[in-house]
Amino acid sequence: MPRQSDVLATDFLVKIADEFGTPVYIYHAEKIKTQYEKLQKAFHKANTRFFYACKALTNINILKYINSLGCGLDTVSIQEVQLGLKAGFDPKNIIFTPNCVDLQEIIAAKDLGVIINIDNLSILEQFGNKFGGSYPISIRLNPHIMAGGNFKISTGHIDSKFGISIHQMRHIERIVKSTKLKVTGLHMHTGSEIKDVDVFLRGVEIMFEMTQHFPDLESIDLGSGFKVAYQQGDPETDIDLLGKKLSDAFNSFAKNYEKPLQLWFEPGKYLVSQCGYFVVKANVIKQTTANVFVGVNSGFNHLIRPMFYDAFHLIRNISNPKGTERIYTVVGNICETDTFGWDRKINEVREGDYLVFYNAGAYGFEMSSNFNSRLKPAEVMVKDGKPFLIRKRDTLEDLLKNQIELA
């Protein structure tokens, strides 16, 4: 878990919950800065750029803050590109890496002037036939490396939909040559929550081998997948060790390449996961023959990771932090099984108490929905010690605003 100095105090979280209501997502801006500075320090010996993978959290205020740190932006939809531009990112600092989109979305990104990664042969050929070498592109490769904390978030293996197989290089070369495409970047991403530093080293060695096919490269992009701790004793990616080993390998290779090269990364969860807190209220304490349930005023419509990925989030009672520890199963109010945590030791929970889920900044609000016609929660950003409302809680009118009632 993060050091205590990196964690917002429980009484402060209670104050925010009292002021803005629950459920509420709370983001600690300075924690994002801390994480970004760790990456900069770890890779300071290599010519490195970082692009925030905003699919983790796209609130416009978070994007503006990350832009203010000097970080670039990694996007996966044309809407994320548009949000990035609205947040003030320079198009040259925005990467667009979609998958399974049509050519029109790629053209829309081109018209906005961003860096484009193409991850399939069909679009590569269509783009080349239409634009040739007039607009430089990058190519996303599939390195055939199995990595990540869960099969659902592993993206570089043989059965993945992402990227063009490295074994299709001859086909890539034919398209590039025949359409005169200018390829200035190679990209790969093997998955999320990678603990083993050697996975990145295997990946970069494959990328080094692929560079022989592309004389105009300016960057090698290794995606991300840096793991953060979700509970005490959880392994993390050793960023300092990774920075040293990768920087050494990259610098050794780059000095023999024909033109200057940059090493790129796209951290998402690493930057924003630990900055986030999700505070809910205990609605009921329900004892059955087998369990004591804490039923809260939220569900997987607000935080789907535990149900979708079997993800662990530390849960604490911030209203009664010194109460006697008891065993609870924490569940939501959705009309489906939506268990946040089985058999958790939590300080005694009373109806009306606030519970906090830690590490809720990444893929929390971003994957939320209005299932059961429940309202999406508010979002609050803490900056310079002050809380600011950055998204209002949904209202019934929000559920209806795009519906058209027939006469």
Outline the structure in words.
GO terms for molecular function: diaminopimelate decarboxylase activity; pyridoxal phosphate binding. Pyridoxal 5'-phosphate binds at residues 225, 363. Its cofactor is pyridoxal 5'-phosphate. The chain is an alpha/beta fold and 407 residues long. The chain folds into 2 domains: 29-269, TIM Barrel (Alpha-Beta Barrel); 276-392, Lyase, Ornithine Decarboxylase, Chain A, domain 1 (Beta Barrel), CATH 2.40.37.10. The chain is built from 12 helices and 18 strands. It has helices spanning 10-20, 29-42, 60-68, 78-86, 103-112, 121-131, 169-179, 197-210, 239-254, 269-272, 305-309, 396-400, and strands spanning 24-28, 48-53, 72-75, 94-96, 115-118, 137-142, 164-165, 183-187, 219-221, 262-265, 276-287, 292-296, 315-317, 325-331, 339-347, 354-358, 378-383, 386-391. Strands 1, 11, 12, 13, 14, 15, 16, 17 and 18 form a 9-stranded mixed sheet that branches. An 8-stranded parallel β-barrel has the order 2-3-4-5-6-8-9-10, surrounded by 5 helices. Helix 2 (29-42) packs across helix 9, helix 6 runs parallel beside helix 7 (169-179) and helix 8 packs parallel to helix 9 (239-254). The radius of gyration is 23 Å and the shape is globular. The protein starts with 9 loop residues before the first helix and ends in a 7-residue tail after the last helix.
